[in-house]
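Pasting as-is:
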Amino acid sequence: MRERGRAWIYTLLLLPGMFVGGFLGAEAYAALTRSSVPLLGAPLLNTHFTREPLDPTDAFRSALAEVEAHYYGNPPAVDKLTYTSIDGMLSAIGDPYTRFMDPDAFRRMQEDTQGSFTGIGALLEDAPGGARIVRPLPNSPASKAGLRAGDIIIAVDGKSLERIALDDAVRMIRGPRYTDVKLTIRRNGVEEPFTVTIRRDLVESPTVDVYLEDDTNKIYRIWLQNFSEKAPTLLDRALNEIKQNGGRAIILDLRANPGGLLDSAIEVASRFIPGEQVVVSVVGRQGLLERRYTLRGRYRNLEMPIVVLINGGSASASEIVAGALRDHKIAPLIGEDSFGKGLVQTVIPTSQNTAVAITTAKYLTPNGTDLNAKVVDGKRVGGLKPDIEVKNPEDWRMTEEDKARDLQLQKALEVLREKLHATQQGNGVLRAQNDAEVSR
């Protein structure tokens, strides 16, 4: 995703047998008109249809007016009818990334790419019956309220999350600053759910955390969690910290990183790749649109071995950076196949604080690899293939508490120790750096 001007690139109840192809059969229609059942629009049988060009605006307004005039109950609000109609139009394209954003969705997208929002400050994932807390962010309202990794939010302000999508749950939890939200929590080891009231506050999106994974050999891990506007600056601070502390090797952890801004990805790649090199090629429906190159003056000349961790949650901008670092022989990839989102969306503001995200191109790695996954025999095939494949347990969580089972991290440390000719391995020391500390 990228910014250009005002656009952000940031991905009837029918009775059985009555209708065939969407039209009522003549005999069935005649039977209905002879009965006492009123059929709105019966005179249409005598209408002479013409093949005039369709005016989409007139067609929509006409349909909306008829619904408002004739629907037997109270129709939904006009904005809901309008948003739903746009959703239907975009779904006909058949691309899951081309979508409509209502005002709430558009605002959340802007918050996510800018790197801050108002909420409780917790990373969430889908869970049976609700949303599981992956971890509360340091110094966040969630952390101060005592929420823990593994807690499952099962209700927000008394409304159950049983059949609520994760994105909708996030929308319910976020809200204006200094307002309260009541969360019902289910916690392992506690028999009954309990309720916590949390005051929302400004939260900096987690972007960069730094960990000293081997204190003897000075191997650091940079967990880059998204490609927001702040990612390059926060990465620079992390690299400065590592260099000042005598770092000798780096693990760039892009696991569970869903992507973000294309410009941010170019900035990040430029820190690691020397010279003026291709980072990604952008291809539209009529061929090559552009090649994006590393930016002058950004290369950090780290002079230390680097490996990159990826998994099925590494997508979009993550795949651009990982692919570029591998193609230019900066770092091998360790882990599992990436997600395979090799498409670029242009987010175009429309009216009334809404927007449409339209897939406008696909991207290729410097060596020409098409990353976008395809469905073959019902299975998703594509994405980056790691140089060293290592699978973590299916129930593994990307938390400090579950680090002992992180086989991918252990393999990355093993590879780097070999490169450093290390004679012994050191211990990991938590050195988390969070946005709240470095950006305020």
